[in-house]
Request: fold
Amino acid sequence: MSQSTSAVATDTHAEHHEELSFLYKYILPIDHKIIAMQYIFTGMIMAIVGGYFAYAFRMQLAFPGDLVPLYGLVGPGEYNMLVTNHGTIMIFWVAMPVLIAGFGNYLIPLMIGCDDMVFPRLNRLSYQIFLVSALVLILSFFVKGGGFGGAWTAYPPLSSVAEYSLTDWGASLWLLAVALEFISFLLGGINFVTTAMNARAPGMKMLDIPIAVWFIVVAVILFMASVGPLVAGAVMLFMDQRVGTTFFLPSAGGDPLLWEHLFWFFGHPEVYVVLLPTMGIVAEIITVFSRKKLFGYRTVLYTAFATGGLSFVVWAHHQFIAGIDPRMANVFTVTTVLISIPLAEMMFSYIATLYGGSIELKTPMLWALSFLAAFLIGGVTGIYLGASAMDVYFHDSYFVLAHFHYTFFPITIIGMFAALTYWFPKMFGRMMNETLGKIHFWGTFIPFNCIFLPLFFLGLAGQHRRIYNYDHFPDLATQELQDIRVFATYSLIVMIFFQLIFVYNFFHSMFKGEKATENPWKSNTLEWTTLSPPPHGNFKVLPTVYRGPYEYSVPGRDEDYWPQNEAPKKS
Amino acid sequence: MSETYAHPNYIKIWFWLLILLALSVAGPMLEIPALTILTAFGIAVVKAFLVAANFMHLKFEKKIIWFLLILSMCLLGVFFFGAAPDVMMTEGDQWIDCIADKSCVEQRL
Amino acid sequence: MSTHGPIATHRSATGVPSGRLAIWWLLASEIFIFGGLVVCFVLFKLNGTPGFEDASLTSTAAGAINTFVLLTSSLSIVLAHAAIEKGDSAKSFTYIWYTIGGGFVFLGIKAYEYTGKILHGHTLTDNLFWSFYYTMTGLHALHVIGGMVIMALISFDIRKGHNYQRVELIGIYWHFVDLVWIFLFPLLYIANF
Reply:
């Protein structure tokens, strides 16, 4: 392209790429919005796989030994494979691609007011690597011996010796898939951070960036800083599996605890990697639907930095009973309890934002509020587990399981629905059906609590995780406990059933829904100032920013919102 | 091409690097372990700094890049000290045995 | 595709060009990958794990020559950058190919070393020291090979007059590969006690 056209391109950018063929527009796109859709749809398909696995093993727990409809018999090895891959899929192939890669891709360029990511082709490459990783994972279910069953933490020696994990290539393919996924997100993360740092609209200062973008960037930085040692660890574990080295095998001088440290040094920051994007999305939604300025923008931002920093010094609370040095357990207990302070502060800021606002209970707002409520339970039960003395009793029980589902379910599923319902008009140019949306909300949120609240009681009753059939344990095979398990399983089935309403609403609204205006929610951020859906190149004229993103209900203005790019009146 | 720097004298830096390399190879010949550690790793740090500052132009780079790189190394340090009591030391391993043995507990109290 | 790309690519709110900023982020994540391996190695070594005394069997001379080769190739790539800054793409092309030549010499010496060790029975699975030795140097060698391939691509690109800034970017990467070796050299070759 010659010099003269590039100068013109600043203004008439949108017309340049109209003639793209289907292949280049949808299969090999460089447009960040299409890549975002690819991530989101891939993530949603993987969520169906992960949910199907959850259905299969919950049925086995409720009706041990029976044939599971639509699945078949769940044996012990099969059960391990199901729970392992349910966890792996939900974190690495649902939460990460949808919340970070999907919405990160969609929102970062739009919210900071530029036409695309800084490296569009790198962006495409990272999606393609991600897709390959998903395919490799699915392939691992079908090799001899079945998929990997050593839990998503993959502790050696269970994960490093084929005789223990009962599957030879299943474990290696699982590890390969996870490693490819890491590489994809490392490349994607570099792109996100560089874009957010460098490509901001003129006038957008650091404190004018919407919280959603900030939090996605902080999350990506946490990911990039924590995953490196685990990539090294994955190489070592892969060589243990395939070449016969003994990095993690105590029989020949290796140390399995080293893997646990490598894994959790990544694994704990990873919780905040998926938490922060949802926190950011929720911040956008609650300010819009309570028509109020975000309470303490700087406080919220600094608490995110504090959370990120502290998240690197808490990892060993996952290993309190793994045989770590008890002196270190003291240290990690203190840091773990400390990390609840910035997060509580963030929650209080959000609640203070709601206080006195004119709250409008649209579907996205319902999801956002339910996130705050559910995550609060997850967070508070986490403090129990952070204290090493109590963790000794709770460790590996259903209490832990219920705790982290009360964090991950709000983060992943509720956060995903909140974001999808909120940005649906922007993404597809049409409104979603409110009534169906509310039915789907209550049909998801109530069964969610019915599934996981009872599991706290099961955990307190001493029920251990990773047991496929409690009939062999007289203390746990009582009728009362079995009733709870059956109740949780039925609740899951009810919840899965209500998802059909969402699927219908999603696709029906995409093609037949009411046309959306440019700014249906009367929001301030830049993505709402362009067409719905935005054209290639995003903005007709790239915006200039004059103020922060949360100027709602400013006194002395006719309208209760004040878009970031609206030029101030000359006085 | 964004901007140009006042270039350091690359050949001179290279020359210094070679001298340091010779020193780090010569260090162990004195057969003093403490000195070997110093010549091996101390010089590696100096060499790394010379390469980073001059060849990679960190000298002229914005502060944020320094911050980024130093933060990465600090976090690696955090990982080292978090994992060290378990992987590097063995004295904490046998603590349960001690509780079983009354005299051992009294001794520690 | 041309060198044009979206407008976003040409913005620079931090004052660091996007390409260079991304390279630094890449290197920061590489620090964690190599750093993770080095930390594991040091943990095992300080624990007195049997087998680590085998560090005395590695050839200090070969390691030193390789350090010299890499340092020199670092010099030539930075001279390539200096040349391209003056717009002299032919000179830059030559310097890039000197660097790639340095990479080949490095890999040749590495291959010679590997062969010798394997013939003496010190294979990957011999003990933990050799596992680490092959993993760390192998991962490093992969980075060398990757760098050489990218450098070759860039060299032809600049001869056509495109993408001059990439010489600096690959240079930063190559210096990092050099830096990793600067630390691997004392760890694996000198510190044999």
Notes: The interface with chain A takes residues 1-9, 11-14, 16-18, 21-22, 25-26, 28-37, 39-40, 43-44, 49-51, 124-125, 127-128, 131, 135, 139 of chain C (CB under 8 Å). Chain C has a mean pLDDT of 91. The longest helix of chain C spans residues 128-159.
